[in-house]
Amino acid sequence: MDIETTQKLEELCRYAFECARHDNASDLERLLNYGLNVNLTNEKGDTLLMLAAYNGNVNATRILLKRGADIERLNDKRLSVLSGACFKGYDEIVKMLLEHDADIHAGRLSALNCALMFRRKKILTLLLTHNAAPLSLWQRICARLYGVRSLIVRA
After folding, report:
1. Where, in residue numbers, are the ANK repeats (predicted)?
2. pLDDT of residue 153
C-alpha cells in the first residue's frame, strides 16, 4: 500500500472516531456500511463504542451496539465502556449497555465501583437491579450510605 492510500485510510479512521465522539450517527453508520471495523481502536485502545458512550452519544452508541461492537473490550488503561459511562453519569447509555449484558465488574475500575466512588445513585440502582451478585463489604457500606439499601444482596 502506498503512502497516499495509507494517509487516506488513517484520515478516514480519525473521522470515524470524530463521528463517535460527536454523535454523527448517520456518517458513522455509512462508514460501517462500507466495511469499517465496528471494533476499530485508536492509539489508546479506545473503541468507537467507548468514545460514543463516554461522550454520552446515544445514537452512535445504539448503532454500534446494533452492529455488534465488543461491549467487554477494555482500553489500554483496562477500563470498560460501562465504567466510562458510569463515571460520566450517562444513565441512558448505562441502560443500553446493561440491556446488552455489559459486565458490571469488568475492568480495573469496575462500573459498580465507579458508580460508588462518584456517588451515581441512579446508576448504582440500575447496576444493582441488573446484577444480583454479592457485594464486597466496602461496596455494601457505600451502597447503604448512598441510600440504595433495599437493593443490596447480602453476601
Report:
1. 44-76
2. 44
Q: Check whether 45 has a pLDDT greater than 80.
A: yes
DSSP of 48-59, one letter per residue? HHHHHHHTT-HH
Which phi and psi angles does 47 have, rounded to 5°?
-90, 170
Angle at 60 between CA 68 and CA 107, to 5 degrees: 60
- Residue 53: closest CA among 70, 37, 32: 70
Can you give the C-alpha Rg of the chain in angstroms? 17
**pTM given for the model:** 0.86
CB-based contacts of 77, cutoff 8 Å, min separation 6: 44, 45, 108
Q: What is the rounded average pLDDT of the residues 97-107?
A: 94
C-alpha 57/C-alpha 153 separation (Å) is: 32
Res. 81: pLDDT tops 90: yes
As a CATH number, domain 3-114 is 1.25.40.20
d(CA 111, CA 108) in angstroms, rounded, equals 9
Strands (E), the chain: none
Domain ranges of the chain: 3-114
